[in-house]
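Sequence in, structure out.
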Amino acid sequence: MKSRTIAFRLILAVSVCTTAILFAVLGFDYLHSRASLEREIDRNAHNLTRASVFHVETVLMSVQAATETLARALESAYFDSGEVRHLLRSSLEANPAIFGEAIAFEPKLGDDGRERLEAPYFHRHDGHIEFVPVEDAYAYPDKDWFRRPRELRRPVWSEPYFDEGGGNVLMVTLSVPFFEREDSGEQRFRGVVTADIALDWLTKLVSEIKVLDTGYAVLLSPNGTFITYPDADFILNESLFTLREDLGSGEQLSRLGQRLISGVEGAVEHTNLFGEPARLHFAPIAPAGWTLVLVLPEDEIYDDVRNLALTTLSIGIAGTLMMLLVVVLIARSITRPLGALVLATREIAAGHFDAPLPTRIKDDEVGDLTQAFGTMMRELSDHVRQLTLTTAVKERIESELKIAHDIQMSILPKMFPPLPDRDEIDLYALVEPAKEVGGDFYDFFQIDDEHLCLVIADVSGKGVPASLFMAVTKTLIKATAKSGRSSAEVMTRVNAELARDNDQSMFVTVFCAILDLSSGEVLYTNAGHNPPFLIRVDGTTELLVSGHSQLVLGVMEDVVYRTESLTLSKGERLFLYTDGVTEAMNSAEQAFGEARVVQELDRLRGSSLRETTHAMVASVRDFAGSEPQSDDITIMLIEYQGLSD
């Protein structure tokens, strides 16, 4: 299938990026505008709610203050019936917000044994104040407006009600108890002062609250009953909870209704409590326990934002289409000359470096590209010739390194056990170079019938120089180790030879030991090498650390080395190794270390020499993981088996 052209990719990239930017800008603008609008509406609704609540609270508090003042006056002195009526009329005249007032005294027993009721009442009627005496049939002591303040001993606001036969208006009653202090100090209940407030002014006030075009306000009683509502049939006949049932809403809206009448101020988003998605702002009217709720339809809130977003989207789409048209024209002007250049470069790709290039069309980037292709063609031809020569040289070097590796491995002894015709000793060893050739080596050979020389060494550096130095060292040690010479003498002589004319300043660490096959005695010299581990028959492992460290070979010509000794019992092993084992690093830059060597030797107790050696190498590689091998790994494991019975 033909790959997509530059023009197609350019148009696609511009389209995707432009569309993404357009929708990102539109989305941000929409969300920002919506959030700003919500904040502004919330601020205005909050201010309107507080102003309306303050207006209502001012009226209610003035009524409560006047009523409590009248109650305190009755507590301060005794008044006869005429004076009581005068107080009532004066209080009503002084407080135009009060529709009617009454003083209902605690009933007293008359001489005939019957209760005497006294509750004079004044109210407004046709612009005048009229007196209404209490009827004997009106048993007010059982009425809530009298009984509740008597029991609670504090002012009580009634639920709103429709006063039929009196003012024939929607009203609410405030009842304030008054008392008489007795000689014992206790207060004896004497009666209740009531103040009726017609709510027609309140209904008008709430109904005139307008938010947006269709927003409205409702007033709720303490138990959630509607005091005002756009639908007059709801007033005093419906509550938040019956409305919720009519709407078929769930428990969540029931909890919302409880929140609205909880006496706190707040706001609610995205609720359909009133039949449509709306935002609610509510605040309590403290004196009466009412709640004023502003209902803001969300559809109307977001209409302007949606209209603005649609208009912006239309403009953005039109602009994007115009820009894409311009991009198409520009892309074609670029890709046409490139097409001619592609035909010419296909010949170059096939190896025809002398293929003619198209003539320079314009003095622009495409023309510069044509000229650059011509330069590239000439340089590529030269590079291919040079690469051919380099590849041939590299292959020759790799072949020589492979041969050097094979030669290096061939000079190491491979016969295990080392003395197949004798049972005193068993031995296994291996070398894992980090590169094609390395500087580690091991060796073992008989000096005479009763002595076996054991050598493990690590030359400084890697690669071909280390391998040559390794070969020289191995040859010198084998040539110097003669019968009757100690390991210290051998190391001293070899060091003198290596240090002489050592212009490259190379050195080698060596552990050289001479084992007496009949007695198990080991005379050894450690020239700066890793101390070996002695594995006892009972499985305990001991690190053979010398009392004083000795210098590596090849540094100073006149160094004299010393010999140390140990005696191997039947079944004991010597574990010799180079630092490629203990200094192997993992990805966390942690070294394998001597402690892990001991753990592995303990784990491999009872395994054969070959199994133990290969298992140790495998453990080192598992520890290093994906990290490349940084140094040669060499291990020699010897087990002394003693003389045959």
